[in-house]
Design goal:
alpha+beta, 6-stranded antiparallel sheet, 3 domains, Glucose Oxidase, domain 1, D-amino Acid Aminotransferase, Chain A, domain 1, Dna Ligase, domain 1, 8-stranded mixed sheet, 10 helices, single chain
Length: 395
């Protein structure tokens, strides 16, 4: 098993690792880490037991690298050869394990992330976009930034393609934003004067590292109704995003975290949908507005609303339905091939669900509060991903 310091990562270490190394070598703030280039060579992973095994020297080598990081916990993430590419983000399709501490846990997480290239959901995503396959994938192990605030920045607005910068931000670790677990603050930074327009999200929960692992907890009421980024932090974050775009020569999707006033960059990858025509308009709005949310994937679609509250209800979704749910996770991605549109009660324009909807060219509205109670199951509705509305007949 080859282990490479993150700052030395080259294309053989996968796209995510190589991009992070490029940022580090340019002097940008990236948490230190290392890359395991071929986990399948020396590590075996039993999906049933969740255990990794390998030669006795492997735990010692990984332990030495972990000691060098001097972190309370690490983040373990895939770094595929076609992941984070110009044609496919693989948003949420490959594995990430946060808050890993012991050597045994790290070994298991490395094996799990390395094997995630071969999972059914990753293979289906790859086939849909006609991307090359890979049996295993390099894996990044990085010091975990125990974020006060975190989120995602796009250097272009993915809905319009213009030069407006879009930021989604919330309290705690950035997983809350990327997974769509919360409705984040949305910050729109418009050139040339960089005027900032803030739409506050509800930010009801946060994810943090505790002594006993990751813990999701309620956000105090006063913090839900105030912005989680200062004006100075917004300016510095925008400058870092533009440096990323300049380094890579194309618009970037950047994950970031703030700890003690310092901004860290956790990912920089191409925005995948700027050159793709928006979803076609599927018909005029009919009826009353049932619910509104964050415009997240342009286009309009008409179809029967299909309310799905758990994976056990996936079989109810038929081709042409409008998927309505609390939130989605990577296991829900196959439904995007069937659904004519997607509505989620939580999340924002830069969440996994919104990114995947844009890649599948279907309209989406995120952060549509009370959608599951306001939209009757089976009712004909129109979802307008450009306006953020769902219209139909009230029961």
């Amino acid at each position: 098993m080859s282990v490479v310091p993150l700052i030395e990562a080259d294309p053989a270490c996968g796209r995510k690792a190589h991009a992070l190394a490029t940022l580090m070598r340019a002097g940008l703030p990236v948490p230190d880490g290392f890359v395991v280039t071929d986990p399948a060579t020396d590590l075996a992973f039993d999906l049933a037991s969740g255990l990794a095994s390998g030669p006795a020297e492997e735990p010692r080598r990984i332990s030495a690298h972990l000691r060098r990081l001097r972190a309370r916990a690490v983040a373990v993430r895939s770094s595929g050869m076609v992941e984070d590419s110009e044609t496919g983000s693989f948003a949420g399709q490959m594995e990430t394990v946060l808050g890993v501490r012991t050597v045994d846990e790290v070994l298991a997480a490395i094996a799990r992330c390395g094997a995630s290239a071969g999972t059914q959901r990753a293979q289906a995503y790859r086939a849909h976009f006609d991307l090359a396959g890979e049996a295993t994938t390099p894996v990044i192990v990085q010091a975990l930034v125990e974020a006060d605030r975190a989120g995602v920045l796009f250097t272009r607005d993915p809905r319009t393609g213009d030069h407006t910068i879009v930021i989604n931000a919330s309290w705690g670790l950035g997983e809350s934003v990327v997974s769509g677990a919360v409705v984040p603050d949305e910050l729109i930074v418009a050139p040339p004067a960089d005027a900032v327009d803030v739409v506050l999200g509800t930010k009801q929960t946060r994810l943090d590292l505790s002594d006993h692992g990751l813990v999701r907890s309620p956000v105090p009421e006063p913090d839900r109704v105030r912005g989680c980024m200062t004006a100075g932090e917004i300016r510095r974050l925008v400058a870092l995003g533009r440096r990323c775009e300049s380094l890579f020569g194309r618009p970037q999707d950047v994950e970031w975290a703030v700890r003690g006033g310092r901004i860290w960059l956790l990912q920089s990858r191409p925005i995948t949908t700027l050159d793709t025509p928006p979803a076609p308009l599927g018909g005029a709005d009919r009826g009353h507005i049932l619910v509104t949310g964050v415009p997240s994937s342009p286009g309009r679609a008409v179809g029967p609303a299909r309310l799905v509250r758990s994976a056990g209800e996936f079989s109810r979704v038929q081709c042409g339905d409008i998927l309505v749910c609390r939130t989605t996770d990577p296991a829900w991605t196959p439904l995007f091939r069937l659904a004519a549109g997607v509505v989620t009660e939580t999340g924002g324009v830069l969440s996994h669900a919104a990114i995947v909807a844009r890649e599948y060219r279907i309209p989406a509205v995120a952060g549509a509060r009370d959608a599951l109670t306001s939209i009757p199951d089976g009712t004909q509705v129109t979802v307008d991903g450009g306006r953020g509305t769902i219209t139909g007949r009230r029961s």
